[in-house]
User: What shape does this take?
Amino acid sequence: MRLSRLAPLVAATVAVAALWVAPLFLDPFAVNVLTRSMIYAVLAVTVDLLWGFMGILTFGQAAFFGVGAYAAAMMLGRFGGAPEWIAAALGVAVAASTLLGLAVGWLSFYHRSTALYASVISLVFPIVVTQLIYSGGELTGSSSGLVGFDVLPFEPAGFFRLAAMVLVAVTLAAWVFVRSDAGRALVAVRDNDARCAYLGLNPKRLQILMTTVLAGVAGLAGFMFANASGVVAPENAGFLFGTELVIWVALGGRGTLLGPVVGTVAIDYLAANLSGNLPFLWQLLLGATFVAVIILLPGGLAELASRVVGWLPSRRAEGFAPTLRARASLPASRDYADPLLKVSGLAKSYGSLTVLENIDLEVRPGELVSLVGPNGAGKTTLMRCLSDGTEPIKGEIAIDGSSTAGLTPNRIVALGIGRKFQVASVFESLTVADCLLLARASHDGLSPVGRAQALSLPQAAIDVMRMTGLDRMLASPVHLLSHGQKQALELSMVVALEPRMILLDEPTAGLTKAERTTIGTVLRTLTGELGIAAVLVEHDLDFVRQISSRIVVLHQGRLVLDGTVDEVVNSETVKTIYSGGGHD
Assistant: This one.
């Protein structure tokens, strides 16, 4: 284990040593081209982190690169190349790109934005930046760019070594991060950002943070490019260059880090050697190779390498299993005098269609309230309103006296509410242990540099796992689990939050009789012994009878009955409602 942790550092040291002496054996043309290629590879790492690991297809890294390059060139051209002004140029290049990254991130990932919206922003941003450069006149050099500014006092070999060290440092940092617990959160956001929010995480904030930080890294690459080349041009910030970066990452193998680095350096170096002799044929060959790789090797050229070398970091789960450890769970308040959940006059409509109307409901600690009714009664809509305060509604929903109006799901989770969906909502690309670790992130945090050696869970969550065999499958990828195991995993994740109330939408759907009995036992323990409140949507009326404190009946968006199990089950109203159709 110790050797495996040191392996990346050893590999980075060897790479730096090899690249440090490489200029002694390369001709001047190769030194200059490879310097540029390695700077581009730094950009490729940022694209891979955003696209390969977070699932954000971005063309905007070229714009941040161009902004950094122009900021450095304008500073050095105006104030000269004294050490203090070089340091200032570096700071301005990184700061300008970082601030723009923050603005673009905020525009791209505001609440309810989609991945498509973010991609459109990344398409438009390089075009806007390029047009600003063209209209900048003497300040930006317009279409001619900027030349003749002072640069770092290095020979070509010095710039080569600087680019090599920065590339190795950025790649190593990215490698360590994506293999850490915090790095698992990137993949989780890509797989299922909604589940992240319902675990108390803030996926939008993480997306904005990554966009901002990686924009700063792109600005650093722009600073190096301006100094190494001595010229900056509008093309450095353009959409075409952004597209080339995406192609290089795809060809190298997105989600692997090393694949995009090697692919970018190789393709850019080959382009420099072949584009002069075969300008049109080279573009045709590159395009044909891109299409062939996407069709035959969706994982890029790194997919071939990974069959030989198994330590490439991957977007898929790694077989890492921490030690499972129970943590003490304090019983929730057993004071039944004040309701934990209070719904008053709730109404929800979609246009002219009224789904919920005049709903009044109270749930106290320790109660297990089952919500039943025919298809289309509004049960799932009610669950969504309870767990997402940004849903436009009439009326009021309060948790322990605090209104949920305007609160995003992660903020409602912070109030002590956990939600399980009708279809198991988990992270398909991660392991069982990773999913549970993310469920504990709002309590325990996530390390950005390492993996937790112990996974501390409430005893109730461990009970669910042991009863379903998940405790022996911590290192198993989630996409290999059965439907029932995924349902149990999601329930374990919700219980791991240590909520004061859990919202369960058909938790026994697709489970065997033994598994349903297990879930029933767990729910009775949570409510009866730990005093946790529960609202349960369930179609299995036998299951409902066995575990419920109360039953609430919805019909055509209205609450028509709220009473004890016997009162509701034997009610003529319920018999009339169900005689007219099925129930969900």
